[in-house]
Amino acid sequence: MSRPLLFLDVDGPLNPYAAKPEKRPVGYTTLRVPRNDGAPDEHRALSLRRRPLRVWLNPEHGRVLLRLDYELCWATTWMADANRWIAPVLGLPELPFVDFGDALLQDRPDGVHWKTAPLVDYANGRPFAWVDDEQSDLDQAYVTAHHRARGLLHHVDPRIGLREDDFRTLADFARCLGTSQATG
Question: What does the angle CA 83 – CA 8 – CA 26 come to, to the nearest 5 degrees?
Answer without folding.
Answer: 85
